[in-house]
Amino acid sequence: MQEGKIIKALSGFYYVYSEGTVTQCRGRGVFRKKKITPLVGDMVQFEAENQNEGYVLKIGKRKNELVRPPIANVDQAILVFSAVEPDFSTALLDRFLVLVEANDIDPIICITKMDLVNDEVKLKIEAYADDYRKIGYPVLLTSTETATGLDVLSPYFEGKTSVFAGQSGVGKSSLLNALNPELDLETGVISMSLGRGKHTTRHVELIQFGSGLVADTPGFSSLEFLGIETEDLGSCFPEMLHLSSECKFRGCTHLAEPKCAVKVAVEDGEIPSYRYEHYENFYQEIKDRKPRY
Predict the structure, then answer these.
(1) 50, 66, 122, 182: which is deepest, by most CB within 10 A?
(2) Same domain, 75 and 111
(3) Which cofactor does it need (predicted)?
């Protein structure tokens, strides 16, 4: 029996990478009976007579799994946002950060198109970048030049399984195409002659980049907080989680309770007011969520 990682799933076949070779495998029937679907990113045990005829026998424990793209054991998400066109949005970034934190994935914030902004916007973006760095997030500022973005990002891919996510129209597909030119991902332009829209359905594949693996499909097409409860939200804001032990009440929601260390930190300017506002908005959104039966 061998061990490896599924790097591609297509038409009922699983392509398992192990010790420098890729083996085409089928899943065991028992997976279907138990309604278990092997996912790209799964660590598996498999048996194979040759590189075209193998069977996945066992799936290892998952650290996390995403629905879109369907992938397991993601180490980090490169959150790509632009300084302009579209404008940088802390509300949208914080939404992505909550989703990433809730899935036990490390975020790396990458703000592109810094060469297109005037001095005023540049200072504003740099101030935001400092806020997020203080929380402990890596923040990279890059230009429209895709190669520059890749040079800056490259060290972060080493030994990790990464997924790209973020705002629409900011250059995620361009970065992925630069990683692997064979991908030929559509970069937000609709091909009129073929009539194809932006959302051509594709299988998910992990592509090798240095010693790391990168999912070839941008993640998180749904930005709803479906799996997150109100009591989980505070732990998705690291600066609030860090202070929660100093709140007077255990299980403090940081909203109306007296002697709340988080609210004091907001008043003192230690936590940016926009971060706290987004926390309040997200809390209300989760609270108002209609139950799904």
Answers:
(1) 66
(2) yes
(3) Zn(2+)
**Residues making up the binding site for Zn(2+):** 247, 252, 254, 260
Domain extent at residue 53: 2-61
**Mean pLDDT computed over 164-192:** 70
Question: Are residues 57 and 70 part of one domain?
Answer: no
Strands 2-10 and 13-18 turn out to be antiparallel
Burial of 136 (0-12, 13-18, 19+ CB in 10 A): exposed
Q: What is the DSSP annotation of 61-74?
A: PPS-EETTTTEE--
H or E stretch at 280 = helix 273-287
Give the residue numbers of the binding site for GTP: 112-115, 166-174
* CA distances in angstroms from 93 to 60, 137, 171, listed in the order given: 32, 12, 15
Task: Let me know whether 87 and 42 are in one domain.
Answer: no
Contact 108, 160 (CB under 8 A): no
Closest CA to 78 of 149, 180, 184, 169: 149
Do residues 187 and 112 make contact, with C-beta atoms less than 8 angstroms apart? no
Give which of 65, 5, 1, 7 is closest to 203, Cα–Cα: 7
Binding site residue list = 112-115, 166-174, 247, 252, 254, 260
**Tens digits of residue pLDDT in 96-126:** 999 999 999 999 999 999 999 999 999 999 9
**Is 174 in the same domain as 281?**
no
**SS3 state at 19:** coil
Which amino acid does the sequence have at 194?
L
Q: Are residues 105 and 210 in the same domain?
A: yes
Rounded CA-CA distance 162/38 in Å is: 18
Prior bond of 218 cis (ω within 30°): no
Tokens in use for 131?
């806020």
pLDDT for res 125: 98
